[in-house]
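[step 3/7] inverse_fold.run input=structure_tokens len=415
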């Protein structure tokens, strides 16, 4: 089949966020299974190629010109972002119709976020599937107004319309399916639940333990790793308040925050606020910030870590951070929120805590830090689950069953 993934995030140009990582993993898996694969993504600069071919995947990129100055305009600035998103959605529809005219498309998959499939869905020339990663109309419930300073009503409506019109729906967790079904007042059985795929760099069962042991620090400290942006919704403040309790009980514990800094609503930065808090608590010596890191460095940090922590307060339909840690053979301490309990098996591959509860996170981290045998057992169980459920080939094969059924119904309706 000629398959198209239409989603603006495709690594490495877009970074390695969760949606981009999914696109990267499954597109290559489809190609390895013998399908023709095209990705329609965005590019933010003219020096990024408009088209290239790698690993059996043809990538077509639409230039997005984002004028951040307009967003600062009073009143009108709130509507610049949704306008740009809808303009991009129209460009996506135009490109897909041009691709279809040149060589018919068998199935198109859109992510629901930002309603990229909105205009295509109104007059589809091929069957399309919408994969619900986490829509804006869900995410907006977890951000403060200062953290999402733009209007979400138009895009949220367009996301819902695109979901309603889809020929099939998939989601990476049952919880995500249930949340969207409740919002749209539809039957959750319309969704096929298929977990996300980890790229081969992470999902290989033997992982990358060939990396040389770390030389930047003595071997004694027990390393607890947090991967993700430094922002409130990622739970960094919750983790920060747990750290003094952990260090008091486990003096050799060291915490590493790997991820980009983010501004706070009061005009400061999250890292600066955390550093001030750690200094006041007398634990600054036990904390390290790496800043933004590339994939090779991320893999190395997962290798160095003893425990990984995902204290998110943001809805997660599937936690890539938790899955990556499990692939590395590390136990995970994570929030009991959204689809995370479907990614992390509480008591088996990690420990789940109430989102926003520093005491629970501290207790779980102390327990794991104090029991090397428990860390090893959970790490092995996590690696086994990744190999069993999150491999690109398995996820691709599950998706392909949905695609084949959708294509058959679409062709049958057309005759």
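[step 3/7] decode complete -> sequence:
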């Amino acid at each position: 089949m000629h398959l198209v993934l239409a989603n603006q995030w495709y690594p490495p140009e877009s970074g390695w966020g969760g949606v981009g990582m999914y696109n990267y993993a499954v597109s290559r898996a489809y190609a390895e299974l013998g399908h023709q694969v095209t990705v329609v993504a965005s590019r933010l600069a003219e020096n990024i190629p408009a088209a290239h071919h790698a690993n059996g995947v043809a990538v077509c990129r639409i230039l997005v010109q984002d004028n951040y100055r307009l967003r600062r305009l009073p009143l009108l600035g709130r509507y610049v972002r949704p306008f740009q998103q809808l303009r991009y959605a129209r460009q996506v529809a135009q490109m897909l119709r041009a691709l279809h005219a040149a060589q018919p498309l068998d199935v198109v998959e859109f992510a629901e976020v930002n309603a990229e499939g909105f205009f295509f869905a109104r007059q589809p020339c091929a069957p399309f599937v919408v994969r619900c990663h986490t829509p804006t109309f869900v995410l907006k419930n977890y951000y403060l107004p200062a953290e999402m300073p733009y209007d979400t009503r138009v895009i949220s409506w367009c996301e819902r319309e695109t979901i309603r019109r889809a020929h099939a729906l998939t989601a990476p967790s049952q919880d995500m399916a249930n949340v969207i079904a409740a919002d749209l007042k539809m039957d959750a059985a319309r969704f096929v639940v298929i977990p996300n795929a980890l790229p081969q760099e992470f999902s290989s069962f033997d992982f990358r333990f060939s990396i040389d042991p770390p030389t930047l620090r003595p071997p004694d400290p027990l390393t607890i790793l947090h991967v993700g942006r430094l922002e409130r919704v990622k739970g960094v403040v919750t983790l920060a308040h747990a750290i003094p309790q952990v260090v008091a009980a486990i003096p050799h514990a060291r915490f590493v925050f790997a991820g980009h800094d983010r501004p706070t609503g009061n005009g400061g930065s999250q890292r600066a606020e955390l550093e001030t808090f750690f200094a006041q608590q007398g634990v600054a010596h036990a904390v390290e910030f790496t800043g933004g890191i590339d994939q090779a460095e991320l893999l190395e940090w997962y290798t160095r870590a003893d425990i990984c922590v995902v204290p998110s307060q943001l809805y997660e339909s599937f936690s890539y951070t938790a899955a990556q840690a499990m692939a590395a053979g590390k136990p995970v301490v994570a929030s009991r929120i959204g689809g995370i309990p479907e990614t992390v098996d509480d008591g088996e591959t990690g420990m789940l805590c109430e989102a926003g509860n520093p005491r629970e996170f501290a207790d779980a981290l102390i327990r794991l830090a104090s029991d090397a045998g428990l860390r090893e057992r959970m790490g092995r169980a996590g690696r086994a689950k990744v190999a069993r459920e999150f491999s690109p080939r398995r996820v691709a094969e599950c998706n392909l069953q949905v695609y084949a059924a959708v294509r058959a119904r679409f062709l049958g309706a057309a005759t």
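[step 4/7] annotate
The first strand starts at residue 2 and ends at 6.
Residues 2-197+391-414 form a domain with the Rossmann fold fold (CATH 3.40.50.2000).
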